[in-house]
Amino acid sequence: MERHVLSVLVRNSSGVLTRVSGLFARRGFNIDSLTVGRTENPNISRMTIGLMGNEDILEQFTKQLNKLEDVLRVFELKSEYSVYRELVLIKVKATPENRASINEVVKIFRSKIIDVASNTLTIELTGDDSKINALIKLMEGYEIQEIVRTGVTALERGDNDITNYGEYFN
User: Fold this and answer.
1) Which helix (H) or strand (E) holds 48?
2) I need a labelling partner for 88 at 20 to 30 A (CA). Which of 73, 103, 112, 139 fits?
3) What is the pLDDT of residues 117-132, one digit of tens each?
């Protein structure tokens, strides 16, 4: 199974997220990751949907998404032509003895400590999937208390953007 990332422009209206996620649920498929936010146009939101499957599954979902009234554009972001990023926050147990070594790992990954408490440190990292997984693996040695990940978000590289492929949406 391959990983696919879809960029989906939708009308910024109530219920659109439910309709899109319901489309996946009705067909028994899992969304691997989902991020949603407004675009430069306040009437339009962008969904970045990560899913696992073959080309047939991708084609089926693209067709089904395009049938939804609030969906304006669906575009697959291929990894070789796109920038993928994810944000992770990791709360790790920190003792006076291991704080310095945790800080060294944080520096190596160009991440940052965003909260310090008496028994924990919270680390923030933005990067691709492999970088985030590598930091998590290293932090497991320090006893991870909590993790939250945003899921993938992505844009096409270069001058192209999703609105350059035809009519612009008002």
Assistant:
1) strand 44-53
2) 73
3) 999 999 999 999 999 9
